Amino acid sequence: MAMADGSFRVEVEHDHLRKLANASPVQAVCELVWNSLDADASRVDIDVDHGELGMHSISVRDNGHGFTYEEARALFGKVGGSWKRHGANSRHRSRVLHGKEGKGRLKALALGRVADWIVRYRDEAGNLMGFKMTLVKDALVDVEISAPEPAEPVLGTGVEVTISELEKQFKSLETERAVPDLSSVFAIYLKNYQDAEILFDGERLDPEANIASSRTISLDPIEADGGTHPVVLEVIQWNSAPERSIFLCGKDGFPFARIAPKFHTKGYVFSAYLKSAYVDLLQERGAIDLAEMDPAMADAVDQASEAIQVHFKEASAAEARSEIERWKEERSYPYEAEPTTKVETAERQVFDILAITVNKHLSDFSQQSAKGRTFQMRMLRQAIERGPDELQTILTQVLDLPQKTMNEFAKLLEEADLANVISASKMVADRLSFLSGIEQLLYAPETRGLLKERSQLHRMIAEGNTWIFGEEFSLTVDDKGLTEVLRKHRSIIGDETIIDAPVKRIDGSVGVVDLMLSRSVPRNRPDEREHLVVELKRPSVVIGPKELTQVESYAFAIANDERFRDLDTRWVFWAVSNDIDEHARRRARQEGSPPGRVYKDGPIEIWVKAWSEVLSDAKFRMRFVQDKLKSNVDDDAALKYLKKTYAKYLDGIADDAAPEATSANVDAEDASKT
């Protein structure tokens, strides 16, 4: 007896049906695919039909066993009446079932206004039969169904769902986004059931090919409902994926709910699968959509989130160490020896952060030749040593990094006072090297006789190294006539002092000084000043009567000049060379005077200094500063700040930079694929 076309009503309130028909586009497609897989389909095709105006319809087609005409009323007539409730496994392939409530089919209407089912099945006699069903969003409680008819044998069993009159153009269902997204949803299923395949617009979902690495982590069990439910977290890092997700899965690993992580894993896209029988319980109760409000489930999600962050911090650290080792092997890394002090350690860690981040931001940096990378590495090191301003210039003008990244680097240096520590440490190291070099030039037999007074020794001191005589000195006049000394002196004490003629020595010639170093000594009145004039001699010159006479002539020229005779200014003159003869030594050991002073009269003092004394004093000052810097880094919060801030850029270069996992025991099951 032939059956006529007809319809039936869904036994549930219309408002409830409308809620069930809401879902994201990908979620709606996934529900239809799960129905196909639960029906033992070995192949599921998802196709998006495009017309002149864009997406026209979406279809999901499978070769599963379908469902009979008689089962249709039970499937669609009553929500919760799914045939899947009668067993935990599929009919023919004994697959674990994803859904048991029969709600998933209604998600199709989240995509469009009309959903049509074409169903083919075998009746009790083994005949291939088919019928059609239609659901319209405007009348959710009414299901139209056609009478069953014999179907073409070549078609075989299966179901095809077509959704038309789409709500809108779904960007998430464009191939380049949908394929990796759907792959993340069905990754565990396709790994467990390799007899199933899913295609999207003809492209086969192949999660295995998109996996960069995977890791299984055991979490604390969920204690709820008087029972203990083990929890396992599987983290898959993808080569590409549209978004990061945490899936709540049953114990068999099939996702029932999807959660957006509330944290960032910069540079990594992943899917995490939290597997537990407790999720199965929530699904059976119909409470899976409210899982995050369940206290036990919420705690498990928090624990999983922490474990995921630790996992990727460790992965980032491993990648960073590998990259740094590669730079060392190709000799582009600008440091050779291991750091020996806290200051050097701080500088090295800042450099590693900077270099790794630049490497991530700039593809050219990693792809260029080792020679080019060596040059840029040296620039980065110099920029760090010179402080945030220099670093900003390099990052902006040379490397063209994003402004946000540049600001973060400057903040990293400034907030911990690392800029001062690192640049000061570099300055001290350079100065100690300079002192050692000068010492060699002055005292080595092969160089001391060749070093000239002004053209060599003078220039080395004058060009940024006047600190050798004391940190309080700044270069004010360099190799100028004594007239210029007076003019410079005038600019300090007041422009009203007039200088209109050269100042002569006692013999009438114009005086020239090697270096004039000036310092201002605080006194009772702001117009009081103190100056230092240094007469440098080349190493081969021994200071004797002639040299003393020369420096005295400078001093007396100032003392006798009528324009400065009565000014409240103190002048200190030095004569410096490698050695001092007996005459000068006697002058420097006068009773009642400190060692080295050969003359004092009013505001004028003349001293004789050997280079050994000058260098010894300078070394003592530099080593004192160096020791103080080390002490400051040990006692200060600079390194603590660096390690605290480290994770923002590069976790784990320092052993204690990454936080430890407090609630996750990491299993040793790491399967990496690159």
TrEMBL record:
Kinase recorded as keyword: yes
Pfam families: HATPase_c_3
InterPro entries hit by this protein: HATPase_C_sf (IPR036890)
Keyword line: Kinase, Transferase
Superkingdom classification of source: Bacteria
MF GO annotations: kinase activity
Name this polypeptide is given: Histidine kinase-, DNA gyrase B-, and HSP90-like ATPase
Native organism: Roseicitreum antarcticum
